[in-house]
Specification:
globular, alpha/beta, 4Fe-4S, four-stranded mixed sheet, 37% helix
C-alpha cells in the first residue's frame, strides 16, 4: 500500500489552480476551427479576440477570465492508497486556498445568505470515487458562474424519449442565449436521480472537446444536438453566425422505471481544466 500525505495532496491541488491562466490546447484548436468556418464578421472578430486573450493570459501569467470560478474537483482515490494527515476534502481546500492566492485568482465564494465572502475561494466542491490503483487522480474544473447559472434540470416522463432529450438541450441553450459567453460546450447528463444527472452533466466537461461518446447511440445524439444548437444562430458572444457551441457531450446512468432526468450544464469558451495523477 502506498502512502500519500495531506501536504502532497494539498500542493497538487494548489498546482491545479494554474489552469485558471491557461486555455487547454484542445480548446484553442476548437476555437481556431470555429474561426476557420465562421462567415459572420462580428463573430469572427470576437473569436480572434478570444484567441488573442488566451495567448496574452498564458504569456503574462494572468487569469484567462476575471471569473476564476468555484473550484470543482473530481477525485479518484486508489484503493491501494493510505492517505495520512487529515481528510481528503481538507487537503483539497488547503490547496485551493494556496493556489488561488499563488496565481492571483479572484476569491468568489461566499455564504449564500449573508453574502459574506470566505476570502480564499473555499470551500471547493469535491466529488470522490474509488478505483483499483495506488494513485490519487485530480480533475479540476474552475467553474465560472456566467455559465453555471445557465444549468437546467428537466424531469421528463419516459415517453419523452430521445427526441425529448434533444428538445431539452436545445431549450437550455436557447434560454441561455449569450449569457454563458458562447461558443459554449454543452454537458448533458441523462438518468440517475436529479443530483446524479446534474453531476454527470458537469463531469462531461472533463472530456476532450469534440471527442465523441464511445456509445454509438449517444454519439449520434451528440451530433444531432450540436446541429440543433448551432442552428439557433446565437453565435459567438451573441453576435450570430455558425458557432453557438463547440461540442455537446452526453453521459448516461441507469434510472428509475418512471423517470427520465435530463440535466444540461453549460461551459463557457474559457474551458479551463487540469488533470493530475499523484
Amino acid at each position: 500500500m502506498r502512502e500519500i500525505t495531506f501536504e502532497t495532496l494539498a500542493e497538487a491541488a494548489a498546482d491545479c489552480v494554474k489552469a485558471c491562466l491557461c486555455l487547454p490546447e484542445r480548446a484553442k484548436a476548437a476555437l481556431k476551427a470555429a474561426r476557420a468556418r465562421e462567415d459572420n464578421e462580428a463573430a469572427a472578430f470576437a473569436l480572434d479576440m478570444l484567441l488573442e486573450n488566451a495567448e496574452t493570459a498564458e504569456r503574462e501569467g494572468l487569469a484567462l477570465c476575471q471569473d476564476t470560478g468555484m473550484a470543482v474537483f473530481f477525485v479518484t482515490l486508489g484503493l491501494g492508497v493510505r492517505f495520512t494527515g487529515g481528510r481528503i476534502e481538507d487537503a483539497i481546500n488547503e490547496g485551493v486556498r494556496r493556489g488561488y492566492r499563488r496565481y492571483g485568482c479572484r476569491a468568489s465564494v461566499l455564504d449564500p445568505l449573508t453574502r459574506v465572502n470566505t476570502g480564499d475561494n473555499t470551500p471547493a466542491i469535491v466529488h470522490i470515487e474509488t478505483e483499483e490503483s495506488e494513485n490519487i487522480t485530480l480533475d479540476f474544473l474552475p467553474k465560472g458562474f456566467g455559465s453555471e447559472n445557465m444549468t437546467r434540470l428537466y424531469m421528463l416522463t419516459p415517453s419523452a424519449g430521445i427526441r425529448g432529450i434533444a428538445d431539452c438541450v436545445e431549450d437550455a441553450v436557447r434560454a441561455a442565449g449569450s449569457k454563458p459567453c458562447p461558443p459554449v460546450i454543452v454537458g448533458v447528463g441523462i438518468g440517475g436521480t436529479s443530483e446524479k444527472a446534474a453531476e454527470l452533466a458537469k463531469r462531461q466537461h472533463l472530456r476532450e472537446i469534440g471527442a465523441p461518446s464511445p456509445d454509438p447511440e449517444l454519439a449520434a445524439l451528440e451530433r444531432e444536438c450540436l446541429e440543433r444548437v448551432n442552428a439557433l444562430g446565437i453565435g459567438v458572444q451573441g453576435f450570430g453566425g455558425q458557432n453557438t457551441a463547440l461540442a455537446v457531450h452526453i453521459g448516461k446512468y441507469p434510472t428509475h422505471i418512471t423517470a427520465l432526468p435530463v440535466a444540461v450544464n453549460i461551459q463557457c469558451n474559457a474551458a479551463r481544466k487540469s488533470h493530475k495523477v499523484i
